[in-house]
Amino acid sequence: MFFVINKIEQVSHRTDGLHNPKKSSNPMVLGIYRTQSRTALFTVYSKKAYGEFWDDVERKKIASRYWTFEMKALAKQKVAEAPKPPYIFKLTIIGWIFVAIMIATMGLIVYQETKPPVPKSAAYVAMEQAPVVGDIYLGRYEVFKEAGERIASEIGFGWFKVIKVEGDMYYMAKSTEMSKTHKPKGELNSTDFETESTPVKITEQVGYMINMKATDDKMEIYITEKK
Hints:
18% of the residues lie in helices and 40% in strands. It is an alpha+beta fold and 227 residues long. It has 2 domains: 3-103, no CATH class; 124-226, PH-domain like (Roll). Strands 1, 2, 3, 4, 5 and 6 form a 6-stranded antiparallel β-sheet that branches.
């Protein structure tokens, strides 16, 4: 962002009758100035004006350390009489756009923090609950020959039923008609289940997902929906 400081002349005064401390034969001019600071976002005028004496012949500024008592008195008087600045602070068009963006951003942040949470769907709430006897779930399973293996020897898709619950242990029975490939749930049997069940524990339950692992580490079940 650019930043520019300008010295703006407000008014100039003849100083007839005052003695030039540098060259007595040269007349002086008293200039009254303000500082203008400009950026891409705003413009600022200094609230207080200031005076400078100039040699009107050599066009050189006379340093304040050379000012006489009369020069100081005149400068103080004329500074007090200086016209007021058109404004002290003013936003540019870019500045107004920036402010609007910031207000909109802060408003959005406040809204996001204060808006009520989106109601959870019935399916989501059902998956958050702990399984109980009789619950039926849709998902897939992987069977491993040895515990710790990562390549499954058997994979199937279909429905599972909770047969028994003992603390954090769930006994899951597979449907009698599990599919080797993924199929629409309406094409899978969700009413008939095997008589044998596998004891598993939940390893992760988040949103629409429940992951389970057999106690012997040879089977994993990934649940995605509750019937």
